[in-house]
């Protein structure tokens, strides 16, 4: 049983089905709809989804990313890093609407593995001999079902994680608030670049295209430090944001690549979210219960890793369950493979490795520059590129040449 019908949970269902294993997905929402904003899928995740037969739908839904480009608050380019196939990977990087991706995964799951059970909320579990007794609630009914394995893929505020770790696991806030939106607009740069302007220490504006067709859609993310770091009780992706609050942080910008005030005012719905994560866990689960995706390793959304790492979790989980006779040993092997690299990513994201360099550019050239070589040394630029690669890249040769994870 997989708790959660998001990108991670649906990818796990597809992976398990492809490996010859039966599963059921339960989702608390009464209806799954294409909600949310944009997401970037890294080549390592695109490879896994392609091997699950979703290469065609991804190519239709997404925009193949060409560059990730960093600029100052005037739009002057500091650093441009090639992405996806432009960087040598055999698979592209895609920028895509999160909700549309979820609907594509949902359609594939329901075609292959059966319907997702919506309106079903996880409440509790208990180990029961060679299985897990799961308590669910559907409307006013309490359901108790016995399963071989329970997987919590229910997001950053996971109920399964809360049951496994009932205390001492708070949501940690960086003091940075994020606003997001999707808007119809003319292309920015080549229409396929993730453009990062400024730094969240003094205002940051990120744009990338999630549809190249008609209408042409641009996803934007605005970030600003508004408080000292601390803890928060909850983090709701669907919370409504206020235009005046986000616009105030960019009122003084003269940003050449895009008219930020126009983008903000044209956005039909603005969402607000605190930049949060949780401390890495010493272990994800116990026995025949485990976690996956944001439930296991919530991290700052700055390295295009949230959805991508969930897809990798799903594929490794299915491979381990299909190749070990004992499900508990399979989950232990899954965790041993996935927990160390994802824990390292959580901590690496906290360092905000690019922000200090862009802040340095602002201090040295507050009115902009003509050539970045006038502002940063080659060593500083190389360090900036290396820092970004640490939080967003897989080894090109290793990914291109490794054996498939398919069973």
Summarize the SSE layout with pairings:
Elements lengths: L1 E2 L3 H12 L6 E3 L10 E4 L1 H19 L1 E2 L2 E5 L5 E6 L11 E4 H15 L4 E2 L2 E8 L2 E8 L2 E7 L2 E3 L6 H6 L6 E14 L8 E7 L3 E9 L5 E9 L4 E3 L10 H6 L11 H7 L4 E7 L11 E3 L14 H18 L3 H24 L4 H10 L13 H15 L3 H6 L6
Parallel strand pairs: 1-2, 1-12, 2-8, 5-14, 12-19
Antiparallel strand pairs: 3-7, 4-7, 5-6, 9-10, 10-11, 13-16, 13-17, 13-18, 14-15, 15-16
Helix pairs in contact: 1-3, 1-7, 2-3, 2-7, 7-8
Describe this structure in words.
It is built from 11 helices and 19 strands. It is an alpha/beta fold and 407 residues long. The protein starts with a strand and ends in a 6-residue tail after the last helix.
How much helical structure, as a percent, in the residues?
A: 25-40%
Give the topology string: H per helix, E per strand.
Answer: EHEEHEEEEHEEEEEHEEEEEHHEEHHHHH
Radius of gyration: 21 Å
- Count of DSSP strands: 19
* Stretches with pLDDT under 50, minimum 5 residues: none
Distance between the termini: 20 Å
* Outline type: globular
Helix-strand category: alpha/beta
**How many helices?**
11
Please report which band the strand proportion falls in: under 5%, 5-15%, 15-25%, 25-35%, 35-45% or over 45%.
25-35%
């Amino acid at each position: 049983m997989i708790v959660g019908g998001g990108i991670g949970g649906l990818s796990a269902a597809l992976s398990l089905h492809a490996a010859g294993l039966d599963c059921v997905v339960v989702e608390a929402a009464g209806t799954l709809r294409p909600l949310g904003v944009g997401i970037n899928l890294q080549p390592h995740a695109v490879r896994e989804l392609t091997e699950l037969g979703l290469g065609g739908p991804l190519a239709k839904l997404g925009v193949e990313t060409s560059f990730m480009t960093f600029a100052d608050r005037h739009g002057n380019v500091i650093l441009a890093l090639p992405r996806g196939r432009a960087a040598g990977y055999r698979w592209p990087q895609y920028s895509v609407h999160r909700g549309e991706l979820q609907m594509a995964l949902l359609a594939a799951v329901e075609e292959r593995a059966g319907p997702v059970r919506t309106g079903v909320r996880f409440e509790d579990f208990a180990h029961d001999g060679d299985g897990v007794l799961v308590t669910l609630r559907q409307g006013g009914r309490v359901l108790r079902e016995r399963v071989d394995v329970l997987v919590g893929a229910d997001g950053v505020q996971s109920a399964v994680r809360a049951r496994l770790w009932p205390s001492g696991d708070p949501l940690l806030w960086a003091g940075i608030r994020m606003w997001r939106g999707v808007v119809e607009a003319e292309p920015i740069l080549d229409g396929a670049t993730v453009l990062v302007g400024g730094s969240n220490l003094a205002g940051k504006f990120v744009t990338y295209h999630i549809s190249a067709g008609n209408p042409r859609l641009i996803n934007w993310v605005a970030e600003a430090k508004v408080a000292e770091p601390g803890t928060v009780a909850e983090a709701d992706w669907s919370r409504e944001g206020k235009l005046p609050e986000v616009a105030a942080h960019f009122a003084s910008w003269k940003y050449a690549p895009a008219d930020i005030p126009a983008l903000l005012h044209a956005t039909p719905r603005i969402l607000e979210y605190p930049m949060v994560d949780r401390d890495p866990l010493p272990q994800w689960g116990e026995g025949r219960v485990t976690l996956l995706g944001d439930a296991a390793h919530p991290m700052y959304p700055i390295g295009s890793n949230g959805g991508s790492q969930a897809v990798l979790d799903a594929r490794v989980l299915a491979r381990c369950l299909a190749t070990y006779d004992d499900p508990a040993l399979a989950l232990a092997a899954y965790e041993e493979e996935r927990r160390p690299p994802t824990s390292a990513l959580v901590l690496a994201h906290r360092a905000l490795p690019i922000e200090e360099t862009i802040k340095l550019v602002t201090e040295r050239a507050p009115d902009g520059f003509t050539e970045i070589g006038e502002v940063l040394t080659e060593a500083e630029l190389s360090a900036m590129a290396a820092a970004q690669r640490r939080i967003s890249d897989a080894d090109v040769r290793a990914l291109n040449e490794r054996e498939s994870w398919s069973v």
